[in-house]
Amino acid sequence: MERVIIMAGKMKSPAKPKASSTKVQKAKKTEKKSNTAVYLNGNLMGFHPDGSSIAARMREKRRTNELNYETNIFHNSRTNELFINTDRGRVRKPYVVVEEGKSRLTPEILEKVRSGALSWEHLVKMGVIEYLDAEEEENSLIALNEEDITPDHTHFEVLPSTIFGVTASVLPYPEHNSAPRITMACSMAKQSLGLYAVNFNHRFDTRSYIMYYPQEPLVSTDLYKTLQLKKKAAGQNFVVAITAYEGYNMGDGTVVSRSAIDRGLGRAMMLKTYETEERLYPGGQKDKIEVPTPDVVGYRGEESYRFLDEDGIVYPESRVGGKDVIVGKTSPPRFLEEISVFGVVEEKKRESSLSLKSGEKGIIDSVMVTEAPSGNRLVKIKVRSPKIPEVGDKFASRHGQKGVIGLMLKQEDMPFTSDGISPDLILNPHAIPSRMTAGHLLETLGGKAAAVGGMLRDGTPFSGDTEDDYAELLKKNGFDEHGEEWLYDGITGKKIKVKLFIGPVYYQRLHHLVSNKMHVRSRGPVQMLTLQPTEGRAREGGLRFGEMERDCLIGYGASMVVRERLLEESDKTIQLVCNNCGMFAYHDYVKNKDVCPLCGTEDISPIEMSYAFKLLLGEIRSLFVFPRIVLRDKA
Q1: Which residues does the annotation mark as catalytic?
Q2: Would you say residue 581 lies in a domain?
Q3: Residue 389 carries which DSSP code?
Q4: How many CA atoms lie less than 13 Å away from 534 in the CB half-sphere?
Q5: Model pTM?
Q6: What pLDDT, in 10s, does the model give residues 291-300?
Q7: Is residue 634 part of a domain?
Q8: Which of 88, 127, 91, 83 is nearest to 106 (CA)?
């Protein structure tokens, strides 16, 4: 119809139709702009005149169970788009529906839920509980508690603590800590050593840790109990005093009681699995698991095979160390035939046993002989090694307060209370104010209240026990309401001049262990290409002396130390250089003289240089550039 009118206008008068056509086009554009684009799972389905009203109607249908409860509707008023999502993979969270400033979860409904007349599914179907995804949350105003509801609110949280994820909900009092510390506490909770599986003695994991005496925390949360994490506890309740100690707990260092460690505090066990199989080679030859004999190429000596049984496999409960063979294995030669010294053609077997790396040690826990997926014989050896806390090992509370052991003291040298209690760990007071981890202090107070009251305490975010609850309980039991006590110096026996804050805190031992990281070398293997020391602890590598270390020594004027580190102790080599043309020369062993391959002269000098520099000159020559080393006598 519009098209006909425009055409008719054009025929009658050339001037007017332009105006009328412009008006119609404008009206068309306005109409299109006012229409809301409707998307279903990301696909454009069409347009609707009023997006907000259709969104409201769809939500009402969902609440009356006419529409599936897994449907989510999001109206973007800024771009005038309506998104309907029903696809899988969305993270959705339940909320209590609020209408006109009133909760749909009335006291009558709540009473029916408590009596068991109504279940969670009933509440969802009745429209009392509603699941929102990340997009629909943008259209909602959610209150934390029912008391905070205003006429503008659309929902409120089922439980305030559910605003956190699983890991953060396990931490006590996260609402009292700064956000970065909660993030750190979450990542460190994943690194804690505990009981990761109850059938660990039947498993052959590549590497795992088991804590000897894991404990349930004195202050835990609702989610901790719901997940039954006490069955897989990953920490212990340490008695922590907050004070400085002779500078040994400077920064994030901690002082730990050696006597407590001797009694099993923080002790863990590392289980590591080694495996090897009898591989099949293309020529039909095969590896063989056996005790290698002296005629095998690469025989390691009788000492290395002392723990092997007759079948070539180590026997359980052997105490093995670095370079000890745990599975003896021989492989066929790389070439099918080799001619021996006397000209006899024979096959020489190669030594390819499985052994511990240098620096590793432990006790053979269990041995499993089985079949690999390829059908070959497979042997798995589990080695266990106790990991006793030592100076440099890392510990952390559940508030992001991480630290390493700086000193281990006997119990008699540790400070003690009038009741004779000495702390397991001394934390520096400077660690608290700048990190703003008030939750750590609250947990200390809660742990103390739990210990004197004989019951576990609740540290659930927003709804757990409060400081006043703890103060009242401590006061009732004859303790200082703020958790402070007079302590006495263990060395002098004198009373410390100020009261110290002391109480139990749940600490986790993290798997950053000194024994797994310690690395030192005087001399060792070098790389074949550059003749520089290898890199990394696994390859017995050197410690990198980098550009910044070099700059420090240059700044001090210690040039000979720079020379020693970067040349003498690295890839020093002596190369023959021609005095005439600057080319690298060689030694002719037939004529027993040094010769220049370019000009043939015998005027050659031995020059000290880095092997990497010699390589560089070779690479430059490969680009058809001829670098010369010009030699002259020292002035």
Answers
A1: 252
A2: yes
A3: -
A4: 14
A5: 0.82
A6: 999 988 889 9
A7: no
A8: 127
